[in-house]
Amino acid sequence: MKKYLLFDLDGTLTDPKLGICTCAQYALASFGIDEPDLDKLEPFIGPPLKDSFMDFYQMTEEQAEAAIKKYRERFSDVGLFENTMYEGVDQMLKALSSRGMVLAVASSKPTVFVEKILEHFHIRQYFKVVVGSELDGRRSNKDEVVEEALRQLFGTKRVEKSEVYMIGDRKFDAIGARAMGIESIGVTYGYGSMEELKEAKADYIVQSVEELKKFLLRGTDDAPKGLDMNRVVKTAIPIAMFIFVKMGAMYLTQGMFLVLGGSIFGVPMVDIFEDGTAMVTGNGRAVMSLVGFIAGAAAILKGARVMIPRAKEEAYLSHLRKEPVSSYVYFALCALGAMFVLNILLQKLGLTASAGGYNTATEAQQSANIILGILLYALAAPVAEELLFRGIVYNGLKRSIKPLHAALLSALIFGVYHGNSVQSLYGFLMGFLFAYGYEYFGNFAVPVVCHMVVNLLTYLLGAVGVFGFLMNWTVCIIALVVGALGLFSMIGRKRIY
After folding, report:
1. Under DSSP, is residue 254 helix (H, G, I), strand (E, B) or coil?
2. Helix, strand or coil, per DSSP, at residue 263
3. Contacts by residues 434-438 (CB-CB < 8 Å, ≥ 24 positions apart)
4. Cα 374 from Cα 9, distance rounded (Å)
5. Measured between alpha carbons, how far is 138 from 262 in angstroms, rounded to an integer?
6. Phi–psi pair at 236, nearest 5 degrees
7. How far apart are CA 282 and CA 290, in angstroms?
8. Please, are residues 430 and 453 in contact by the beta-carbon 8 Å criterion?
């Protein structure tokens, strides 16, 4: 949500086709040019009149100025009011103002006409600043109009460009906004096409007044209500179900191994000792966990299939602008840097050596066949855990508390779920990173893939014995720099919390 909103007039707040096109037709007729089809004159809506006469009808500068005089001869008395306001605009302006947003008009139309049109539609009271061009042709370029609007809005204070949107239907609005260093929202319900706005690199594109209203108001309509017992229960139930089904499936699989013995694809699942006792092997425990994660994921899949699409739909307006590939690269650097830094710090600080639960888990990982290990730690576990902790828990908490608090709380639960101090700390920090990536990109695949890659690299580096070689302060510092570079690059591009 941004506080300062600059609106174009024609094609954004009002539909001026009849007035503009009829007056252009009137001006052309004075030059002996007969243009009976008003649709062909739609390109006059948006750009400065002088440019339109010169570009579309090859007039000289002097001829264009004469045409403008003829145009205004009709427009100032008649064409000015041959105009209609788009449905829903007045309700949108009222809602925006009631949320404390500061509105302004930045139009290429002369200011005197803009003022009359706003008064005519009884919406002038919503705008703190109204800026247009001058009748003598000055300030006709959109970047000049935007610059003046910003000057009047902020006065002697520093212009908060990160808090401003320029909203318009033509490429000139997007180009003018970019020239002034502010973000633009293109609207396709006016006279600029989707292709034109994309080519002009509008930051966001909406297709209706209602969608524009929702986009500008996002984050203000549904204020977090805070956690209550109902939300706590809704969060606890899927977690309990996941753990219960997962553990049940694991014990059932263990029982089958102990009763039936044998191997799977030649990989022994049980060791039989001379005294007749049996013990599940490392591979057997890996298969048990694999079955457990699959069963746990199946138990919560129905809930995840409701929560994840709903969250995507609710976040749609916040992610209208497609993130560039570089943002994904920055996130990858951040995740890899965090993985190395955390693993090195936990070892160098002596936390891993003193954590029995962590060492037991590590031994279990290393005792399994590498193929089983990859299937378990880099596929089944990440997918199942993301379905639960980001897909259900994080998305559910966001409905009651702020996204930042939801990210922290879901990460805390994710950490505690791991059951030992080292993995709990590691899980909390990485869990927050997974939630951050999910919120940043609005795509559930991001935390899933990130979790999978981090787990895969951690497992493989440990399995081949390389991790010990990398556990030094030099690698830690390099990883810290790389991770910080990725994180700050993302924050510099977009803030989400």
Report:
1. helix
2. strand
3. 434/386, 434/389, 434/390, 435/390, 435/394, 435/406, 435/407, 435/410, 435/411, 436/407, 436/496, 436/497, 437/331, 437/335, 438/390, 438/394
4. 58
5. 88
6. -75, -35
7. 12
8. no
Round to whole Å and give the CA distance between 395 and 388. Answer: 10
Helical ranges in 349-442 per DSSP H: 356-366, 370-375, 381-386, 395-397, 403-417, 421-441
438, two tokens = 């999910």
**Structure-token match 């600080």, residue found:** 349
Amino acid at 439: E
What does each of the 497 residues of the chain score in pLDDT, given as a tens digit?
789 999 999 899 999 889 889 999 989 999 999 888 888 898 888 778 888 899 989 999 899 989 988 888 888 888 888 889 999 999 999 999 999 999 999 998 889 989 999 999 999 999 999 999 887 768 878 899 999 999 999 988 888 898 999 999 999 999 999 999 999 999 999 988 899 999 999 999 999 999 999 899 886 655 456 777 888 898 999 999 999 999 999 999 988 888 777 677 666 777 766 665 667 888 888 889 999 999 999 999 999 999 999 998 877 777 777 889 999 999 999 999 999 999 899 888 877 766 656 666 666 667 778 888 899 999 999 999 999 999 999 999 998 888 999 999 999 999 999 988 888 999 999 999 999 999 999 999 999 999 999 999 988 887 666 666 778 899 999 999 999 999 999 998 888 87
Q: If you search the block for the tokens 């017992």, which residue do you land on?
A: 229
| Predicted structure pTM score | 0.72
Q: Report the alpha-carbon distance of residue 218 to residue 317 in Å, rounded.
A: 8
Active site residue 51: no
Say how many C-beta atoms besides its own lie within 10 A of residue 353's C-beta: 12
Q: Within 261-324, where are the H helices?
A: 282-315
d(CA 486, CA 419) in angstroms, rounded, equals 30
Instruction: Estimate to the nearest angstrom the gap between the alpha carbon of 64 and the chain centroid.
Output: 45
CB-side neighbour CA atoms (13 Å) of 351 = 14
Q: Which structure tokens are listed for 253? A: 């699989």
Half-sphere exposure for 119 (CA within 13 Å, toward CB): 7
